[in-house]
Amino acid sequence: MSPIQGVYCPNIVPYNADRSINEAELERMTEWLVEKGISGLYPNGSTGEFIRLSFEERLRVVEIMARANRGRVPILAGAAEANIDLVLEAARRYADLGCRAISVTGPYYYKVKPESVEYYFREIAAKSPIDVVLYNIPQFSNEITVESVQRLALDCPRIVGIKDSSRDMPRFLNTLHAVKPQRPDFAVLVGCEEILFPTLMMGGDGGTIATSGVVPEVVMRLYKSFLKGDFDTCRDIQLKLLDIINVMLQAGNFPDGFRSGVELRGFKTGEPRQPLGPTDGKTVEQAREVIACLLADCGFSEAARYCRRHQGARTGPKTFNRLDVESIVREVIRDL
Amino acid sequence: MSPIQGVYCPNIVPYNADRSINEAELERMTEWLVEKGISGLYPNGSTGEFIRLSFEERLRVVEIMARANRGRVPILAGAAEANIDLVLEAARRYADLGCRAISVTGPYYYKVKPESVEYYFREIAAKSPIDVVLYNIPQFSNEITVESVQRLALDCPRIVGIKDSSRDMPRFLNTLHAVKPQRPDFAVLVGCEEILFPTLMMGGDGGTIATSGVVPEVVMRLYKSFLKGDFDTCRDIQLKLLDIINVMLQAGNFPDGFRSGVELRGFKTGEPRQPLGPTDGKTVEQAREVIACLLADCGFSEAARYCRRHQGARTGPKTFNRLDVESIVREVIRDL
Amino acid sequence: MSPIQGVYCPNIVPYNADRSINEAELERMTEWLVEKGISGLYPNGSTGEFIRLSFEERLRVVEIMARANRGRVPILAGAAEANIDLVLEAARRYADLGCRAISVTGPYYYKVKPESVEYYFREIAAKSPIDVVLYNIPQFSNEITVESVQRLALDCPRIVGIKDSSRDMPRFLNTLHAVKPQRPDFAVLVGCEEILFPTLMMGGDGGTIATSGVVPEVVMRLYKSFLKGDFDTCRDIQLKLLDIINVMLQAGNFPDGFRSGVELRGFKTGEPRQPLGPTDGKTVEQAREVIACLLADCGFSEAARYCRRHQGARTGPKTFNRLDVESIVREVIRDL
Amino acid sequence: MSPIQGVYCPNIVPYNADRSINEAELERMTEWLVEKGISGLYPNGSTGEFIRLSFEERLRVVEIMARANRGRVPILAGAAEANIDLVLEAARRYADLGCRAISVTGPYYYKVKPESVEYYFREIAAKSPIDVVLYNIPQFSNEITVESVQRLALDCPRIVGIKDSSRDMPRFLNTLHAVKPQRPDFAVLVGCEEILFPTLMMGGDGGTIATSGVVPEVVMRLYKSFLKGDFDTCRDIQLKLLDIINVMLQAGNFPDGFRSGVELRGFKTGEPRQPLGPTDGKTVEQAREVIACLLADCGFSEAARYCRRHQGARTGPKTFNRLDVESIVREVIRDL
Fold this sequence. Notes:
The structure is a homotetramer. By secondary structure, chain A is of the alpha/beta class. In chain A, 46% of the residues lie in helices and 10% in strands. Chain A has helices at 23-35, 55-69, 84-96, 114-127, 146-155, 169-179, 196-201, 216-227, 231-250, 256-264, 278-297, 325-335; strands at residues 6-9, 40-41, 76-78, 101-105, 131-136, 159-164, 187-190, 206-208. In chain A, strands 2-1-8-7-6-5-4-3 form an 8-stranded parallel sheet. Chains in contact: A-B, A-D, B-C, C-D. At the A-D interface, α6, α7 and α9 of A face α6, α7 and α9 of D.
């Protein structure tokens, strides 16, 4: 099997005005992401609002994207379902659709003891018809401790990697250090664009990077620069990515900022499933303009007309100046 | 409509060996709870593991319990679904089944801004065909701030109460103080048995009390003693309830301790949906014995044979001694 | 020795314009508190900003207050020093000044393991020349677990009580339940005015109540009403105390709101040691006006001229209406 | 003035049997650190237990170390005192002793609002006779937000850097990105050895690294390898440093593990100021053996006799094998 590495895109889900899934737009977005050169697709991630979809909707999202992908890139399908039996049912469906692996968070809502979290994954690993990637996101679900990751990596061949969205770099490095010497093929991916380059530099295998759904060209440029050993470019892009992610994280409720970014790239994203209060809605409007300027400065012309210059904003439009964006786009396209 | 008050029981869900719902046992448990004099039923609460059931299973739980109840006590049905449209679909079903109201937590998993949490409930209130009880449990889902509760109580007649499981007594009192002067019919219920009597004393309307699924006689005795103004008995029972809840909270993962307690009262609870690691499993075994002794001391003979006396345990079996349990049972039965 | 019970006042420290201690005003405030009928004095508490004073200043505060008190009420002296040897040095000084006991928080700044926290108190208890009250305030210092409190109460006669400022009512009740059966003289005091009446009702011995430095008449009325079994008055005052404490907690940084309240009662409080940014300073100004109105409504005429009525504020001035404040003052004075 | 960069050592304080400071050993340790090639000294950091010393002891520590240093390396002196006036008094003393700058944490114990934290530093910056380094350690004291750091860097020439011990790599990068473009001389130092190399790679200026008090040779090797562009060695050492820091963080209470490590390098560290319970004491014993083995594997012969091999431990002694430690020592000595 192909190893899991590179940049996987945890895409948002576009909705219609009645908050049902906009299937046509989801298909078009999938095509766009693959064309832009993303390493892999990652439906039903946190950015994909898996928790706000029904079980049937999650299956449908993967079905649509797998069809649009036509086997071009591997698919890591989020399968953090309500209980083990439903995780396994989803796993069987995603295996049938040709997905590369499923990704499963620790159990959410309740506090579950660390050992029981580990046994949750042991049972999934024993019964899944498809490879499993651990998804550690302790902000929202029970942490999978480094010790558990190490034991699972040693004991369960079905578990082929971890996606760590804890934003905790020491934890990431401890995971690398605990797992790689004995199982070098175990993918250690970061789910936090702020530290993509540092984790690559330390031996990480890539990441599931939400901004890659908005600026796939930029994120892929960072990754490809790393593969070429061009660390200065990596550092420059890494710092500039901070501007984009910071603005998107401040807009409304997660993932409203990412939805705005995708919309500025030319997609209809529709009504959010989580309603916004009036004040919170204004933060989305404000963020949208800043994102538009950032995108315009990156050379993404779709966004330029929504950019009205603001004065004095910290995450203002000038930050991307020194990045030769056209060359990014050219290079990415050439690589395809 | 009847006001929401007294002790509602957030029952556990019994499973079969294959982790499917044991419908016969759920029906029998419902009958037992109603016979024991519980004020109301509360399916699909946190104790009811709503998050580990599928949407269809949650509907089924309410259907079974409503049928077994035969209209004898009001039903507050948990409807914390994945998105507003699913909440409303559940609400319609529960209205058809004759439920008194639905209970809805703040959105879970993601962090949602307080104002947007409020607008989530505003939309539900505007469209629900049935009364709504806010369910504040900030340990597991986004907090509904006191300010939001106050505004929702004033603006939304459909919202008829709050169940506060925050374990935060100052917050509970601030809620009472913010809401009751302008809307005295708004039910303020506590979801934490440790402070049931203090909240009643301060003007609370009752609670959703998980231990009432294990010792309904004891919890109802506290409530009825309060109604009679017998505060000394309330205090005695309140302190003794601490022993029971403390042991149950320490066993395995929530709600494993409650499942053990229910089993000791004579019900099959089956395999837990969240698997237990071996060490965590031992804590359930140990807790089970302590619970058995506590129940035996309360006069619940079903549990007596599982009680082997332990020495020196803090939450040991002697703590219930001075409570004349037989008189409790007699009185509860007489009141029915 | 006299048991520790009733309402102890953790007073603020008045400063001069240069932020040195205003000793004359501290003396005058002490006299005022004793005259108002407070059960005991509590210098160097958190409200007394012990952490912002030097070691010598803390000694000086107790010296001034002990002198002004002239033995009329017991003094509980805060002695949360940098290390055990300094705690003991302070204890010797406070013993010489005739204090009733010292109060010591868990170690602060670092995270210390629970067992080591317990051994910190074991050593203090073994060597202190004066009784010790545990001070649990997990927001700011390492928690003293209920299990540790129970063991310390059983093993250390020098430790005569706990002041619990955790705001955690279940924890308070578990402490009562764990300690009182075997050591009924062990004082369990609450450090959170929001729940003073509920804790008294459950068997607590009183509290260290910061608002008693601003409205000693009101807080003492609650306590005396409880002793008389007049629970309706207790409940009314308890709910109304929420307005006062809520406003004071929102003003600037702790304890700026309490400093404003004391100032409105006629004392010079001077420059705060922790500087206020301009926006934060405005919150103090705004809170000051609300506090003034609350005090005016309580009949405290010193504050009336600073009260300008605001419309629509939740914690507005009307909340105290039904409380016959003149009768409070009259009764408190009669009791002296 | 010399820029603040490289690796500063936040040394522990050795005590006597009576817990007073062992001044002779502190002097000898200072000499040893300077000889080992450390970039700068950092007395009164968190590792230096500033919070457990008296004001006079903190002054004394700096005096002893400044004298032993004899001007060879710059000294960053911790001056996180109880209030601004005491911070400034310490600053004057440390200026007289020739220190390079003071380091000041956000106010501790109470929660202080972010703007007021900023104004605390504005006042210190305006009045200090010596340069100031912000010390961000939100685990133990109020956070200094990135926005505040940016404004302070722009407005206050006296503030010359930040030491960030938050362990939060995204925050570190946001600080770099917010400050460096406009003030390139502002030192951004990391206080977390787990991420020293990644922060250097991204443009950081160095760190205050507690393990440098135990293995200065190893940490300096990492830093010097970075300066030479030898990133592979940096990565290898970085990962291996994890073993050392992990064990030291698990031993007893902070900084007991560091004290054990220093003892194994041949210094008397004496009785800890924070007493250890018996179980916690055992964790120090166990950690001590693991540290001894790690040090032995690094070629530090003083520690070898305390190393008894353990089987199967994750942070076992074999992890340092591939690091040619003798060459490290040789190179460091050659560089002096």
